[in-house]
Amino acid sequence: MKTLLVTGGAGFIGSNFVKESLRAFPDFKIVNLDALTYAGNLENLKDVEDHPQYVFIKGDITDAALVERLFEEHDIDYVVHFAAESHVDRSIEDPGIFVKTNIMGTQVLLDAAKAHWETGKDDLGYPTYREGVKYLQVSTDEVYGDLGKTGLFTEKTSLKPNSPYSASKTAADLLVRSYGKTFKLPINITRCSNNYGAYQFPEKLIPLMLSNVLDLKPLPIYGDGMQVRDWLHVKDHCIGIATVLLHGKDGEVYNIGGNNEKANIEIVDLILETVRKKLTEKKYSGIDTDPAKIDDSLKTYVEDRLGHDRRYAIDNTKITTELGFVPTYTFEEGIEETIEWYLNNQDWLDQVRSGDYQDYYEKMYSKK
Ligand code: NAD
Ligand code: DAU
User: Fold this and answer.
1) Is 340 in the active site?
2) Looking at 77, 85, 141, 230, which residue is catalytic?
3) What is the pTM of this model?
4) In 3D, which of 9, 177, 152 has the Cα closest to residue 82?
5) Dmax of the chain from CA atoms?
């Protein structure tokens, strides 16, 4: 049995990954280390909390003593590192926590992996490691910066992050790369485009718009709404990560994208239209929004995000040709399934919007 340490497994992508992995890999034990910040939620993992091959540890990745102890106690073979501060708007408000979690946390994990897996030295003085171990860094296409109207990010595109969030992710990637080069630690880095799907916190575009539509609140569209993102269903992202974990060549970077570029305004229009149609056709438990009031007047153009990247789009050629990964969801089926999930999971939405969320919303959107 292999033991996989997942960090940030109570967040959006991490919780999807934990559940998919327990299903797909019956011979894996999964240790989930998560600090349960505002973005982490154990409700996301209710289905698997009693699974015999699953262990949850509440703790901070920057706590080196804790991380070292976990490696010892659970004899970790693989690391998939999701834990991060992940929201660009928050990084503009308060960059410090992004540096601590995203950069320093990554270094703590790299040091623990190196110390635990090292078996000796080779003739040139490089550390040697036990067979079959791997550290996988979950990164983002935002490290490449902003694309013009044409072109795609490849793994060779230079790194030009524009926000404190993406700068912290880039710094972490460079640390991971350096442990691969200097210490020959078996590493991979995956760089993914925008994810969507169930359990995404309603600070990100799709769940925020869904949440606001249901409350008949204004839909805040930054700038002209023509910024483009390349949307990937979270379950496809999870399959891409597992593919790299098991088959990726040591030291390599793999981009993971959805081949699915959409302008923000297209997403907002689609959400408006789909929710109106669904609420007209069917009654959903806990929702009493009048579908006749869901119309274009909710769309509200607000002040743009500072340093807002105009377009991201990923070239998937490397992961497709070398590892055989292709996304399975079409956007049409993925977004339909996602909207349906949010309409059927009002309790989850209410729970994550209680407490600090209202303060966050006020702070971020009242001045726009
Ligand atoms: P998220 O914000 O939903 O979840 C982050 C998780 O990390 C939460 O459970 C949180 O409690 C945990 N966490 C935060 N700080 C921690 C700490 N110090 N110690 C332990 N746990 C901590 O994020 P997400 O959207 O699921 O993203 C996961 C990863 O994927 C991130 O590294 C992000 O940069 C990357 N990524 C996200 C996307 C996307 O579209 N969401 C796209 C590409 C890459
Ligand atoms: O590209 C991958 C990245 O995708 C990940 O690394 C990040 O963790 C993830 O948060 C996401 O970053 P974005 O900034 O692209 O996602 P967000 O959902 O915040 O915004 C998507 C687009 O929608 C962006 O152009 C800003 C715009 N937007 C967002 C919000 C929250 C709005 O117009 N209004 C909004 O209220």
Assistant:
1) no
2) 141
3) 0.98
4) 9
5) 74
The token pair at 122 is 């080779």
What pLDDT does 101 receive? 98
SS3 for 253-302 is EEEECCCCEEEHHHHHHHHHHHHHHHHHHCCCCCCCCCHHHCCHHHEEEE
| Ligand 2 mean position, distance from CA 88 (Å) | 7
- Ligand 1 atom closest to Cα of 83? 7
Q: Is 88 in the pocket of ligand 2 (CB under 6 A)?
A: yes
- Could you give the CA distance from residue 171 to residue 161 in angstroms, rounded to a whole number? 10
Q: Is 84 in the pocket of ligand 1 (CB under 6 A)?
A: yes
Distance from the alpha carbon of residue 131 to the mean position of ligand 1, in angstroms: 29
CATH number of 2-195+233-258+311-328: 3.40.50.720
pLDDT in tens, 279-322: 999 999 999 999 999 999 999 999 999 999 999 999 999 999 99
Measured CA to CA, the distance from residue 174 to residue 155 in angstroms comes to: 13
Question: Tell me: the pLDDT tens digits for 188-234?
Answer: 999 999 999 999 999 999 999 999 999 999 999 999 999 999 999 99
Domain residue ranges of the chain, discontinuous segments joined by +: 2-195+233-258+311-328
Q: How far apart are CA 254 and CA 244, in angstroms?
A: 8
